[in-house]
Design brief:
Blueprint: E1 15-18, H1 24-35, E2 39-44, E3 55-59, H2 65-79, E4 84-87, H3 102-112, H4 114-129, E5 133-138, H5 142-145, H6 151-171, E6 176-182, H7 196-205, H8 214-225, E7 234-236
Parallel strand pairs: 1-2, 1-4, 2-3, 4-5, 5-6, 6-7
Helix pairs in contact: 1-8, 2-4, 3-6
């Protein structure tokens, strides 16, 4: 044991709001954080929702400003503070540009990028009044390299990281860290319709020849929330090379 750390107090439990908690990744994050002893508020928009032990369900539609402010207020009313927000909620509407309608395009941006803006605006004010906090955005590899048939999704995720960088600069002086995590390709209901050939292509694109695991992503996010000196960064959690 490091003698310099023997007398350090254990990290205090955090009050965390997780959007998109009904999805595979959202549930994994709620499960990991709650298991670590944090007070986790699971933002749910799509029903039914499979409860995660330790997760407190909160109605949350990230495309609606009133809903975002109400979810943050719920956390504050329950704990007196909000220490972290993990924005997992996202929309994927795959289509060639000539086949995607303006309403679908706007929906992708309203959830993926606008949701981050609404939650960040609602949560950063009470964070700044307290001891700071941490905002984590779930990005995508597609947002760094592009993907045919995913122009709306890739553009929204690229913009999300630009938003992360700007927000990290805005909020750094208030002890609020902001980072983007790229979880890698995850097997989920959203990818269940892909052909075996397409799934193999995703595996082959990884240097390690396999997909990522939601539980591993959740463990990384739990670690990231425990740090104090990391902000304005993009973390890729699979083995695809970003050039």
């Amino acid at each position: 044991m490091n003698p310099l750390s023997e007398n350090l107090p254990a990290p205090a439990p955090l009050a965390v709001l997780v959007s998109g908690a009904s999805g595979v990744l959202g549930q994994a994050i709620v499960r990991e954080l709650a298991g670590a002893g944090h007070r986790v508020f699971a933002g749910v928009h799509q029903r039914p929702w499979e409860p995660v032990p330790g997760g407190v369900p909160v109605d949350l539609d990230v495309a609606d400003d009133t809903s975002c402010r109400a979810a943050v207020r719920r956390v504050l009313d329950d704990t007196g503070r909000i220490d972290a927000v993990v924005h997992v909620a996202g929309v994927i509407l795959d289509a060639l540009l000539t086949h995607i309608g303006p309403d679908d395009w706007d929906r992708v941006f309203s959830v993926n990028l606008g949701g981050a803006m609404r939650l960040g605006r609602a949560a950063s004010r009470p964070m700044a009044r307290g001891k700071g906090g941490h905002i984590v955005h779930i990005g995508s590899y597609s947002g760094t390299v592009g993907s045919a048939g995913q122009s709306a999704y890739a553009a929204s995720k690229a913009a999300l990281h630009g938003f992360t960088l700007s927000l990290a600069r805005e909020l750094g002086s208030r002890e609020i860290r902001v980072n983007t995590v790229l979880p890698g390709f995850l097997l989920s209901p959203l990818t269940a319709g892909l052909t075996p050939e397409r799934l193999q292509a995703y595996r082959d694109a990884n240097l390690l020849g396999r997909h990522n695991d939601p539980a591993e992503v959740a463990r990384f996010i739990a670690f990231l929330l425990s740090t104090r000196n990391i902000s304005g960064q993009l973390f890729a959690l699979d083995s695809r090379v970003i050039s």
